[in-house]
Amino acid sequence: MARSRRYVLGGGPGTAGRLRDLSAQAVRDWYGPLTPAARTAADDVLLLVTELVGHALRRGGAPYELRLDRSAHGVWVQVSDTAPGRPLPQDESCSGRPSTACLYLVQRLAAAWGSVPREHGRTVWCEVPFPPADRGARAV
User: Fold this and answer.
1) Distance between CA atoms of 8 and 21, rounded to whole angstroms?
2) In what order do the strands lie in the sheet with 112-118?
């Protein structure tokens, strides 16, 4: 089973919804039936995919790639976009906007996050921790 998924984005209406669906499928493939704690982590992955795509659009960039990687500790989410500069949690684009426009959810839910500059834009990434598999737990 592949431990990495890469999706090239075409943009347009519904992009975030399509990416949530693809992310949900990846998590199901990797983790199978989810315990309640793992379900919370899976929901966080979907929310953060939406946030990273939305952040790129709010900053005037076009998201062009989603990459998901399963690590020993969770799921790495990476969204590459054409937005200029580094994403900052409270930069000038946040003036007068709700905190969700400023990566607040990413800061609160991810174990770690950051960005890597690219030739045309950047990649914003975050890691969502998953609880260790509990062999005795019953999945729901």
Assistant:
1) 14
2) 4-8, 63-70, 74-81, 121-129, 112-118
35-40, long-range: CB < 8 A, 24+ apart: 35/131, 35/134, 35/137, 35/138, 35/139, 35/140, 36/140, 37/131, 38/130, 38/131, 38/139, 39/140
Provide the terminal-to-terminal Cα distance of the chain, rounded to the nearest Å. 22
Note down pLDDT in tens along the chain; length 140 residues: 679 999 988 767 788 888 999 999 999 999 999 999 999 999 999 999 999 988 888 887 888 999 999 999 999 999 999 988 877 665 445 555 554 456 888 999 999 999 999 988 999 999 999 987 655 544 44
Amino acid at 15: T
One-letter amino acid for residue 55 of the chain: H
